[in-house]
Amino acid sequence: MNTNKNIKTLIVKKPLQLDCGKTINNYPIAYETYGSLNEKKDNAILVFHALTGDQFVTGTNPITNKDGWWSYAVGPDKAIDTNKYFVICSNVIGGCMGSYGPSHKDPNTQKVFGTNFPVITINDMVNAQENLLDHFGINKLFSVAGGSMGGMQVLQFVSNFPEKTKTAIPIACTSSHSAQNIALNELGRQAIAADSNWNEGNYISKDTNPNKGLAVARMAAHITYLSKKGLQEKFGRKLQEREDLKFSFDADFQIESYLRYQGSVFVDRFDANSYLYITRAMDYFDLPRKFKGNLSDAFKETKARFFIISFTSDWLYPTQENKDIVIALNAIGVDVGFVEIKSDKGHDSFLLDVPDFLNALKNFLDKSYTEN
Amino acid sequence: MNTNKNIKTLIVKKPLQLDCGKTINNYPIAYETYGSLNEKKDNAILVFHALTGDQFVTGTNPITNKDGWWSYAVGPDKAIDTNKYFVICSNVIGGCMGSYGPSHKDPNTQKVFGTNFPVITINDMVNAQENLLDHFGINKLFSVAGGSMGGMQVLQFVSNFPEKTKTAIPIACTSSHSAQNIALNELGRQAIAADSNWNEGNYISKDTNPNKGLAVARMAAHITYLSKKGLQEKFGRKLQEREDLKFSFDADFQIESYLRYQGSVFVDRFDANSYLYITRAMDYFDLPRKFKGNLSDAFKETKARFFIISFTSDWLYPTQENKDIVIALNAIGVDVGFVEIKSDKGHDSFLLDVPDFLNALKNFLDKSYTEN
User: Fold this and answer.
1) DSSP string spanning B302-355?
2) Is some CB atom of chain A closer than 8 A to the CB atom of B244?
3) ipTM of this complex
4) Is the Cβ pair A245, B315 closer than 8 Å?
5) B21 in the same domain as B167
6) Does the residue B249 lie in any domain?
7) A353: domain CATH number?
8) Domain boundary residue among B240, B258, B278?
9) Any domain includes A292
């Protein structure tokens, strides 16, 4: 449980019945805000983070001392302009940056939950975060936005609270996790479970840490965030600080060093059990299922204006899966814009400096706000 | 070291200088044959296996009691017709089905090599296997054929021994391992190394086994052998023997059970250190590099007729990488045929019942043989 003084926390008293059937209450949601809420309280944007993100969207993350995960997109004069908008982001429940999760203590036993924490869903995450609106006295958000799992939360939020946002921006996401994506998440979970230090999830009480397994999970995921072409252009077969092959199992190639580094820094900021819970929530995400397979029905109560963004080289959440959402919205006459951004940076494009993407995001928001 | 009586072994006395600089001699090559060598000794096809294959191409593998890995393609009246052709296949050096590898004893120390086995390359594998021609008294093969790493060996064989085969069939392969493929192999190696039972490769002497890490490596690789579309059509979001989600970390989805099963059966037949050595050999494969970047130069001495085959949904060795070989051969006027087979079965297509592929393979071989 992260008790860092830089983490702002809302304790939610209202009981929340989870999809698994259990009910939680008096649970913490850790959040951060950027910019100022205006008097009319109509300039708030709720940003949802992806699998390994957190509430520290921009500026310096006070825990890692690195840039916030969406620094390219959020900040003064940026696409999500904090001179104009009030940005709220919270750590998802199940996470490890202060919100209620598996590293917290079970109030009934006073023992760390571990895998006794209830399995949560994207629906549960969104229902928990909606409490932030009451906290700030906001009746209606100006927008909800997020990429990857953040985009899934956007879809779920609009479906659950159709009157509570003026616009919605799901980016590089899907309405239903594919078999390949479930497979890739299961790979990460199995890598963690294969680490004998995982101890069936009880590593905190046993004072061990499945860092090796978690690093392997991260390496696997990291490969999927980049495109084949992007990897080839950035790394190709470049060797690591040497002229020739070393004929050993050291990191000969730069791509090997890069992956090992990505794994090693990740374990310093992320919790293995949270990785299990959040990937599980993604795999369980299947919005049409609640509506007998008809995705349009998920959105039939909303007047929100949608803007959907995909990336050409994203093979994890390819354009077609984003377009399927556009089609479902078009079918019921919802106001929806769509753009496929050309980028070789793969799924990670939404986190990176991709000017066409950032301009499209800024234009949609600013135009929609002017028409407010 | 596999000492099963079903394994035929050739002890190669001739010293072989490896790319790493070390020399080996008196080393075993385990092989199998199918069909009969004719009097003219001009009907032999040397088949090269892929990463986790072995010499048991067709019929029942006597070690695993399962079908040989290329049973769809090789056998009486099949594409590679053993009524007509004499098929030879050997386990690669570095492997674990009888050929010289890391589970063998170092003759100098009488201790199991483990990671003290020399790092080998595709070039080393091919040079070792060429000894089988002398063994059978074959001056010139009718064909060399293989998919994936087997295809790399085809390319290397023709480059090293331009006069020793009449035809060559590289399938679903590349002339140079890409950054993404190195990354995926490194992921597998890191999964093995993360298993505390790996013991820096000395697990045999310590009587442990990094089965969990090896299973994770296999799961990762298995995902890459299938296409996104193929996975979606076969598994989608189907649940495993239940009506609804279980809200646990058990295998809810069929794709999860399938992956876990693939991992668990693999460790019964494969050695973790061999996995490290063979993936390393693949990553080191860069045929143009030996010819100052000009792939055509690798083939300028050969008169062999090539037939190159790729598959539409293979994202590991996509059509473009196969076409690059065609282009290099065309540039120097080598006789080369090429076909891209439409299949949703991904990289694994070459191992499966894909009639268009099997027919193309059969037609090329039989036509070339008639013109013999």
Assistant:
1) --PEEEEEEETT-SSS-HHHHHHHHHHHHTTT--EEEEEEP-SSGGGGGGS--H
2) no
3) 0.96
4) no
5) yes
6) yes
7) 3.40.50.1820
8) B278
9) yes
The 3-state DSSP class for residue B279 equals: helix
* Token reading at A239: 């060797």
Query: CA-CA distance, A300 to A308, in Å (whole number)?
Result: 17
- Shortest distance between the Cα of A222 and any Cα of chain B, in A, equals 10
Q: What is the value of pTM for the model shown?
A: 0.97
**In degrees, to the nearest 5, what angle opens at C-alpha A317 toward C-alphas A311 and A322?**
70
Together in a domain, B209 and B133: no
**Domain range spanning residue A247?**
182-278
Rounded to whole angstroms, the Cα distance separating B93 from B101 reads 6
What pLDDT, on a 0 to 100 scale, did the predictor assign at position A82? Answer: 98
Residue B109 pLDDT exceeds 80:
yes
A232 and A307 share one domain: no
Q: Give the 3-state secondary structure of residue B64.
A: coil
Would you call B347 a catalytic residue per the annotation? yes
Same domain for A125 and A20? yes
Catalytic residue among B347, B348, B349, B368: B347
Same domain flag for B158 and B304: yes
Domain count, chain B: 2
Q: Does some domain include residue B306?
A: yes
Grade residue A187 by pLDDT with cuts at 50, 70 and 90.
Answer: very high
Contacts of B252 in chain A (CB under 8 A): 283
pLDDT score at A121: 98
pLDDT score recorded for residue A372 = 62
Specify the pLDDT at position B14: 97
Which of A216, A244, A248, A252 to probe by mutation at the B interface, max B CB count within 10 Å? A216
pLDDT of residue B372: 62
pLDDT digits (tens, 9 = 90+) for B245-280: 999 999 999 999 999 999 999 999 999 999 999 999
In a domain, B68, yes or no: yes
A222 flagged as catalytic: no
